[in-house]
Amino acid sequence: MISVSTAGNAILVSGEESRSLETFRNPTTDKLEIAYNDRHTSTPPFVITNRIRGGSMGGALHIRDGIVEDLMGKMDNLAYTVADQVNSAHVSGYDRKGQPGGLFFENIDNSKEAALDLKLDSSIFNDVTKIAAAGRAGAPGDNTVANVVSQIQYHELMEDGTSTMDDFYNAQVGRIGVITNKAVKASEAQVNILNQVEKMRESVSGVSLDEEAVNMIEHQKAFEASARLIKTADEMFDTVLSLKR
After folding, report:
1. What is the per-residue pLDDT for 211?
2. What is the C-alpha to C-alpha distance for residues 39 and 148, in angstroms, rounded to an integer?
């Protein structure tokens, strides 16, 4: 009999008793969660997602709930900042017909899922002449506001005013590369360790055909030498007996 448990002592197997695992979609986060169900009682399933930390499942959950969640939050923050800054500049300008500009992007209330919600305002989508590129009315060739919008990416608007949008985005791309490279190196190191342990085990309990063949030849030659020695001794004994007769 054995006992199987997760981190945090969620008992899955204990002696002759076991609990079945199942998944369900969390209506709040829209993520799949893992729970165990005790078949012997009427208690509801117990969520153990955050207690699974090892193996391929633990690694996948760490990526999903840790790294990916954080990166998505940063991209949402970037999208929200882009929409807010562009809208602020756009409403101060005038369109081709001399009318005050409206929102360029649809209004986003907060940065949560801003990257998913980011889209052109319907009036701009249906009529591009409503893009307010001019800084004053009656000057359709004026591109003052357009220049302001184009320079937004170089302003220090991210991370409490310490980073530009370009730097912020490049930092996230670089971070993904570092995380990926670290994971690849860690995987290679674990493979090397596993190979080394397997070789150590084989050296103690395994059988090498080449080594066994060499040992067999050595024993065969030793047997042949012993047989020849015995035969020589027997011949010498027969010779001594014949001399006496």
Report:
1. 79
2. 64
